[in-house]
Amino acid sequence: MSVTDKWEEEERREIIELLREQMKVEGRLVGLYENSAKELKSTPVRHLLHMINLDSRKHIDICHAAIEILQGRDVFKEHKEDLLKGLKEHMELEEDSVKRANKLLNSNLISMNKALKALIEKLRDDEKRHHNALKKLSEKPFFQ
């Protein structure tokens, strides 16, 4: 093993350790959000905490995926064609969701209420992000 290989391996271990630490932090946050939500009487605030909780859970999954890639696992080894077909359908549904959210945002009732507008904008922005992530996932570099 060359010196460069040793440095790369050491860096890989450090990155994996940082990702594992982040997973622990996100796990603690999930617990805190769940406990806080139980104590709240406001249903809308509980829903907002639940959304943030889901983001922390998503962050755990992101860290898991990054670790698996760093460890050399072939993420898309099997069933690539089926996966690509499924991604296409998901992308179409996400695109429809963006259009629907934009239609909602054009509603006077929603545009006049700052809280409703912010929620629907968040929904739309998430759907756009999902669509873009699926598009990137379906591109060739992920399937080499």
TrEMBL record:
Source lineage: unclassified sequences, metagenomes, ecological metagenomes
Protein name: Rubrerythrin diiron-binding domain-containing protein
Coiled coil stretches, renumbered: 84-140
Species of the source: marine sediment metagenome
InterPro entries in the record: Ferritin-like (IPR012347), Ferritin-like_SF (IPR009078)
Keywords attached to this entry: Coiled coil
Keyword Ribonucleoprotein part of the UniProt annotation: no
